[in-house]
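Lecture notes, continued. The same structure-token format from the folding unit now serves as the input rather than the output. Read the line below as a description of shape only.
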């Protein structure tokens, strides 16, 4: 015979709800502090590896809802990664962050600036998905600027850089009704 304790004791039920409310409030407020913490680390350290980790954390936490600071953090991360010869990381974040720049923050010029920094590094990595992604993101920014001729060239370069294992991505590119990004 099983009895649910929360159903039998109203005081315990109230305590549980109060605890849950306090815990949820703490966790939500702490999520904002996480970005603040990484910003403080970024401002106080001189170690480049630590700065890269802090920038990576800030970008990860703001990727879904980018702030107006997002492009600066993205560009700093890409520049610092290139300086440290962490080309994969630079290309990865340039590709991941470009949608936010082009679409959400309406800044295709900034996207092109960042992509132009990593484009010469494409041959230094083996990940065909990222290689193709650099050109596809460039094409999306060009498309948003209504530079259709160059966008088509970049889309073709992106498709050429994908491998057989990226066939679904290629298929989506061919069937997309509006190749925005």
């Amino acid at each position: 015979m099983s009895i649910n304790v929360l159903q039998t004791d109203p005081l315990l039920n109230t305590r549980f709800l109060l605890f849950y409310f306090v815990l949820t409030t703490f966790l939500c407020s702490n999520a904002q502090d996480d970005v603040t913490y990484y910003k403080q680390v970024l401002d106080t350290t001189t170690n480049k590896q630590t700065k890269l980790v802090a920038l990576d954390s800030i970008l990860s936490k703001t990727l879904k809802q980018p702030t107006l600071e997002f492009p600066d953090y993205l560009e700093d991360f890409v520049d610092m990664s290139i300086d440290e010869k962490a080309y994969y990381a630079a290309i990865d974040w340039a590709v991941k962050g470009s949608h936010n720049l082009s679409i959400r923050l309406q800044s295709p010029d900034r996207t092109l600036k960042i992509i132009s920094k990593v484009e010469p590094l494409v041959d230094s990595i083996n990940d065909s998905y990222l290689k193709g992604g650099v050109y596809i993101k460039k094409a999306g920014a060009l498309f948003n600027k209504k530079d259709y001729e160059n966008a088509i060239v970049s889309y073709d370069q992106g498709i050429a850089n994908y491998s057989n294992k990226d066939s679904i991505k290629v298929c989506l590119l061919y069937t997309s009704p509006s190749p925005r990004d």
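Point for the exam: Confidence is low (pLDDT under 50) at residues 26-33.
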